[in-house]
Design goal:
Strand order of the largest sheet: 1-2
Order of helices and strands: EEHEEHHH
Number of domains: 1
Number of strands: 4
Distance between the termini: 39 Å
Radius of gyration: 15 Å
Shape: globular
Length: about 160
Protein backbone atom coordinates (compact mmCIF):
# COMPACT_ATOMS: atom_id res chain seq x y z
CA UNK A 1 0.00 0.00 0.00
CA UNK A 2 1.43 3.38 -1.02
CA UNK A 3 1.76 5.86 1.83
CA UNK A 4 2.91 9.31 2.88
CA UNK A 5 6.15 9.29 4.88
CA UNK A 6 7.80 12.01 6.93
CA UNK A 7 11.44 12.39 5.96
CA UNK A 8 14.29 14.74 6.77
CA UNK A 9 16.02 15.36 3.47
CA UNK A 10 17.14 18.74 2.22
CA UNK A 11 14.12 20.46 0.74
CA UNK A 12 11.77 17.55 1.48
CA UNK A 13 9.72 17.06 4.62
CA UNK A 14 7.50 14.30 3.29
CA UNK A 15 7.61 11.83 0.41
CA UNK A 16 5.25 9.29 -1.07
CA UNK A 17 6.54 5.76 -0.70
CA UNK A 18 5.63 2.27 -1.90
CA UNK A 19 5.10 -0.61 0.51
CA UNK A 20 6.24 -3.29 -1.92
CA UNK A 21 8.54 -3.18 -4.96
CA UNK A 22 7.17 -2.25 -8.36
CA UNK A 23 8.78 -3.87 -11.39
CA UNK A 24 9.03 -7.05 -13.41
CA UNK A 25 8.44 -10.08 -11.16
CA UNK A 26 7.64 -7.89 -8.13
CA UNK A 27 4.38 -7.83 -6.09
CA UNK A 28 3.10 -4.77 -8.01
CA UNK A 29 0.31 -3.91 -5.57
CA UNK A 30 -2.16 -1.69 -7.35
CA UNK A 31 -1.78 1.43 -5.20
CA UNK A 32 2.04 1.13 -5.28
CA UNK A 33 1.93 0.95 -9.10
CA UNK A 34 -0.52 3.89 -9.13
CA UNK A 35 1.98 5.92 -7.11
CA UNK A 36 4.91 5.12 -9.40
CA UNK A 37 2.83 5.89 -12.49
CA UNK A 38 1.55 9.16 -11.00
CA UNK A 39 5.02 10.33 -9.97
CA UNK A 40 6.44 9.45 -13.39
CA UNK A 41 3.63 11.37 -15.11
CA UNK A 42 4.28 14.44 -12.93
CA UNK A 43 8.09 14.17 -13.35
CA UNK A 44 7.62 14.68 -17.11
CA UNK A 45 10.80 13.12 -18.53
CA UNK A 46 11.44 11.64 -21.97
CA UNK A 47 12.41 8.11 -23.00
CA UNK A 48 15.09 7.98 -25.70
CA UNK A 49 16.33 5.20 -27.97
CA UNK A 50 19.72 5.29 -29.70
CA UNK A 51 18.22 4.86 -33.17
CA UNK A 52 15.23 7.21 -32.92
CA UNK A 53 16.03 9.72 -30.16
CA UNK A 54 13.02 10.85 -28.07
CA UNK A 55 10.18 8.34 -28.44
CA UNK A 56 7.91 8.61 -25.38
CA UNK A 57 7.20 11.15 -22.66
CA UNK A 58 6.36 10.07 -19.14
CA UNK A 59 3.46 12.55 -19.10
CA UNK A 60 1.67 10.14 -21.47
CA UNK A 61 1.78 7.18 -19.06
CA UNK A 62 -1.54 5.50 -18.40
CA UNK A 63 -2.34 5.66 -14.69
CA UNK A 64 -4.26 2.44 -14.14
CA UNK A 65 -2.37 0.71 -11.32
CA UNK A 66 -1.31 -2.24 -13.46
CA UNK A 67 2.34 -2.99 -14.19
CA UNK A 68 2.57 -3.43 -17.93
CA UNK A 69 4.96 -2.74 -20.81
CA UNK A 70 4.60 1.05 -20.67
CA UNK A 71 5.29 1.23 -16.92
CA UNK A 72 8.28 -1.10 -17.37
CA UNK A 73 9.67 1.10 -20.18
CA UNK A 74 9.17 4.29 -18.18
CA UNK A 75 10.92 2.93 -15.06
CA UNK A 76 13.90 2.02 -17.26
CA UNK A 77 13.74 5.43 -18.97
CA UNK A 78 13.68 7.17 -15.58
CA UNK A 79 16.77 5.23 -14.53
CA UNK A 80 18.60 6.01 -17.77
CA UNK A 81 17.65 9.68 -17.75
CA UNK A 82 18.64 10.35 -14.15
CA UNK A 83 21.80 8.25 -14.27
CA UNK A 84 22.70 10.36 -17.32
CA UNK A 85 22.31 13.45 -15.14
CA UNK A 86 24.83 12.00 -12.69
CA UNK A 87 22.32 10.76 -10.12
CA UNK A 88 23.38 7.60 -8.35
CA UNK A 89 20.83 4.81 -8.51
CA UNK A 90 20.66 1.11 -9.24
CA UNK A 91 19.47 0.40 -12.78
CA UNK A 92 17.40 -2.76 -12.25
CA UNK A 93 13.91 -1.76 -13.40
CA UNK A 94 12.53 -1.93 -9.86
CA UNK A 95 11.19 0.85 -7.62
CA UNK A 96 11.58 -0.21 -3.99
CA UNK A 97 10.34 1.15 -0.70
CA UNK A 98 12.71 3.55 1.02
CA UNK A 99 13.45 3.66 4.76
CA UNK A 100 12.87 6.87 6.75
CA UNK A 101 16.31 8.27 5.91
CA UNK A 102 15.83 7.62 2.15
CA UNK A 103 19.22 5.98 1.63
CA UNK A 104 20.44 2.46 0.83
CA UNK A 105 23.19 0.91 2.99
CA UNK A 106 25.73 2.12 0.41
CA UNK A 107 24.54 5.73 0.73
CA UNK A 108 22.51 5.95 -2.50
CA UNK A 109 19.02 7.47 -2.54
CA UNK A 110 16.26 5.02 -3.36
CA UNK A 111 14.51 5.46 -6.74
CA UNK A 112 11.22 6.32 -5.06
CA UNK A 113 12.97 9.28 -3.38
CA UNK A 114 14.47 10.31 -6.74
CA UNK A 115 10.97 10.14 -8.26
CA UNK A 116 9.56 12.39 -5.52
CA UNK A 117 12.44 14.83 -5.98
CA UNK A 118 12.06 14.76 -9.79
CA UNK A 119 8.44 15.86 -9.42
CA UNK A 120 9.43 18.56 -6.95
CA UNK A 121 12.13 19.87 -9.32
CA UNK A 122 9.88 19.68 -12.40
CA UNK A 123 6.79 21.36 -10.96
CA UNK A 124 6.68 24.94 -9.81
CA UNK A 125 3.20 24.39 -8.40
CA UNK A 126 2.39 22.45 -5.25
CA UNK A 127 1.23 19.33 -7.12
CA UNK A 128 3.41 17.04 -5.02
CA UNK A 129 2.23 18.45 -1.67
CA UNK A 130 -1.43 18.34 -2.69
CA UNK A 131 -1.31 14.86 -4.28
CA UNK A 132 -3.32 13.15 -1.48
CA UNK A 133 -5.97 15.90 -1.60
CA UNK A 134 -6.35 16.42 -5.35
CA UNK A 135 -9.40 15.17 -7.21
CA UNK A 136 -6.99 14.49 -10.13
CA UNK A 137 -5.28 11.78 -8.07
CA UNK A 138 -6.65 8.27 -8.65
CA UNK A 139 -9.16 7.55 -5.81
CA UNK A 140 -7.39 4.36 -4.71
CA UNK A 141 -4.07 6.19 -4.45
CA UNK A 142 -5.65 9.20 -2.76
CA UNK A 143 -7.16 6.95 -0.08
CA UNK A 144 -3.73 5.42 0.62
CA UNK A 145 -1.76 8.68 0.71
CA UNK A 146 -4.16 10.80 2.73
CA UNK A 147 -3.77 8.74 5.94
CA UNK A 148 -0.51 10.36 7.09
CA UNK A 149 -0.55 13.49 4.95
CA UNK A 150 -0.75 17.00 6.30
CA UNK A 151 -2.74 19.33 4.11
CA UNK A 152 -0.53 22.28 3.21
CA UNK A 153 -1.73 25.84 3.33
CA UNK A 154 -3.13 27.03 -0.01
CA UNK A 155 -0.88 29.49 -1.82
CA UNK A 156 -1.59 33.10 -0.95
CA UNK A 157 -2.52 35.49 -3.74
CA UNK A 158 -0.18 38.40 -4.33
Amino acid sequence: MAYTMKINLTGMQQVYNVSYPVGLGMPNNRDDVLLVQTLMKLANFTRFTPALGPVENSASIKIDGYFGPQTKRMIKAFEDYYIGLGKLMVSDGIVESAPRDGYTHSGVLYKIIHLNRAVQEQRSDASLKFLPFSSDTHPILRASLIKNAEKPEPPRPF
